[in-house]
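Researcher: Quick test of sequence recovery. Tokens follow.
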């Protein structure tokens, strides 16, 4: 082992990761007066200075086109990382097909995620009690509701008060008006008794907490140059640094949590990626927020005499019960949208309307052949037709053509696309977990993760229901389905990890024998070790996880500050 370079000071708190979970921990604890060292594996990133949001396509790598490893071309301008990070592999066990997105930049995925901000509802915290599958959380919606309030009031979320079952309302800014195609989808949904309501996104529709409102350039995927959407650096980290209590170190690839003779965490060891030297940060409290699977990797690699199977892993559950979101897509074209006059329909960088799960009563009555539900994300509008349109529908509707005729025909189709994406709940299962690969290390010499993953019939039948529902909506609009999946394609269900909503791996609970963390995301085995990313999740509701990460992280951070005051955790 290379000689370790020890940091000369001891911090109150070391935080690993700078995304939604690490950022909120830094915000809350820095404002509480703690001296913090925050470690980020990627490079420094400030969206207000480094965003490529206003760049022309010819100034963006590949003119904004995607590559195999970075399929979303717009992200090339801001994202260091992707599905495969050079020198940082991961492996899949035989028969498994997990894909893992990693963002290597300050703020992590908060720089370019979809900003969808949905509260989990009362049912979502007690799923086992409803259908006997998975596990119940050790907390209720009422426990977390005040922290959802705090998170929304800080980051800024638009939405509407709807009073829907298990879809809690929040502290909302006004939503933007629906676009033309969204109104048509809403009309069709109403005929089918599917609720279609204003979406809930962490994008400012009016000035908020000193940040400017969105000006609807629809370039959110490249990060926001005016800081109008939620990103951890602009909302959490940079303000926390102004307290004088937060030091940020980038290019810090954390290898392990170190442990003292008393069995408590003593800090973390990381590799400085620029010097390739190993550095130790001493801290009285350690908060892991490296992202769900990376946090599990750090814990499993943190082996010592006290913890031969990894730190805080006496239950053997670190890495177990990883979950992703169930995803399946359908696209179509709608004739009524042909030949519309040119107009600006940019809006925010995402949907203005969405459909929350609506069949709770039918599911409870046994009329739905799968457990749990999904919400529907919609898209379309003023964009180029998809390959499905050009491959067949154009021929049917317009008769082909060449030169000027082809251009005129394509302009008729421009803006006729609609598409639907389901985002559904996966139930935790024993076949989905990550572990340390005994034979593979990354370029820093750190053992990598090996993934095991399996969808159950509940998820596959859910994807089937998505396919049927989305096609029915398109047909109700008078449209033609151009892209769908059938039984032979497993109903188009996305690969594990592909939706980038992985949660689980350090399950919280009421019993140290059946969970890794207590209800405050504090390790049962190591009382000064906490987790504030998605790893503590007990289930993976159909609500995108970022807002719940923020609320849980806020609750955990306030608990840390309170425990320090009570001398239950020493600083």
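Model:
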């Amino acid at each position: 082992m290379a000689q370790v370079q020890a940091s000369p000071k001891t911090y109150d708190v070391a935080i690993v990761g700078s995304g939604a979970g690490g950022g909120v921990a830094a915000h809350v604890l820095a404002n509480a007066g703690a001296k913090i060292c925050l470690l980020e594996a990627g490079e420094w990133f400030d969206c207000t200075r480094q965003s490529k949001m206003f760049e022309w396509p010819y100034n963006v790598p590949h003119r904004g086109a995607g590559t195999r490893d970075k399929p979303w071309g717009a992200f090339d301008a801001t994202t260091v990382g992707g599905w495969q990070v050079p020198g940082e592999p991961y492996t899949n066990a035989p028969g498994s097909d997990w894909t893992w997105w990693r963002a290597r930049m300050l703020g992590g995925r908060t720089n370019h995620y979809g900003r969808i901000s949905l509260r989990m509802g009362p049912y979502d915290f007690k799923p086992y009690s409803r259908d006997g599958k998975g596990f119940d959380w050790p907390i209720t919606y009422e426990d977390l509701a005040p922290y959802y309030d705090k998170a929304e009031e800080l980051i800024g979320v638009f939405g509407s008060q709807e009073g829907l079952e298990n879809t809690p309302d929040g502290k909302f800014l006004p939503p933007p008006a629906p676009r033309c195609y969204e109104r048509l989808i809403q009309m069709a949904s109403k005929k089918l008794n599917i609720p279609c309501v204003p979406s809930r996104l962490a994008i400012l529709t009016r000035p908020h907490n000193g940040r400017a409102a969105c000006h609807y350039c629809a370039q959110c995927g490249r990060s926001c140059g005016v800081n109008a959407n939620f990103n951890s650096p602009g909302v959490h980290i940079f303000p926390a640094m102004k307290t004088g209590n937060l030091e940020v170190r980038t290019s810090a690839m954390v290898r392990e949590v170190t442990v003292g003779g008393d069995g408590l965490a003593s800090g973390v060891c990381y590799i400085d990626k620029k010097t390739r030297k190993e550095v130790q940060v001493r801290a009285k409290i350690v908060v892991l927020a490296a992202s769900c699977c990376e946090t599990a990797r750090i814990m499993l690699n943190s082996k010592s005499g006290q913890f031969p199977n990894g730190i805080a892993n006496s239950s053997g559950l670190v890495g177990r019960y990883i979950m992703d979101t169930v995803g399946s897509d359908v696209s179509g074209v709608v004739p009524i949208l042909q030949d519309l006059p040119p107009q600006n329909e940019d809006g925010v960088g995402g949907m203005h309307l969405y459909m929350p799960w609506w069949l709770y009563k039918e599911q409870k009555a046994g009329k739905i052949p799968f457990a749990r539900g999904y919400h529907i994300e919609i898209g379309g509008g003023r964009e180029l037709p998809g390959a499905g349109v050009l491959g067949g529908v154009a021929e049917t509707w317009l008769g082909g053509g060449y030169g000027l005729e082809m251009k005129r025909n394509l302009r008729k189709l421009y803006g006729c696309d609609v598409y639907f994406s389901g985002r559904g709940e996966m139930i935790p299962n024993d076949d989905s977990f990550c572990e340390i690969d005994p034979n593979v290390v990354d370029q820093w010499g750190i053992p990598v993760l090996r993934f095991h993953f399996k969808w159950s019939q509940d998820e596959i039948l859910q994807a089937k229901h998505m396919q049927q529902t989305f096609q029915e909506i398109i047909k109700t609009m008078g449209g033609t389905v151009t892209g769908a999946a059938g039984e032979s394609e497993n109903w188009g269900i996305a690969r594990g990890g592909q939706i980038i909503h992985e949660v689980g791996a350090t399950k919280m609970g009421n019993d140290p024998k059946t969970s890794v963390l207590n209800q405050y995301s504090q390790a049962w085995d190591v009382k000064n070790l906490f987790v504030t990313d998605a790893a503590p999740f007990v289930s993976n509701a159909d609500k995108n996880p970022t807002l719940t990460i923020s609320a849980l992280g806020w609750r955990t951070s306030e608990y840390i500050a309170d425990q320090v005051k009570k001398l239950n955790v020493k600083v």
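The CA atoms of residues 8 and 411 lie 65 Å apart.
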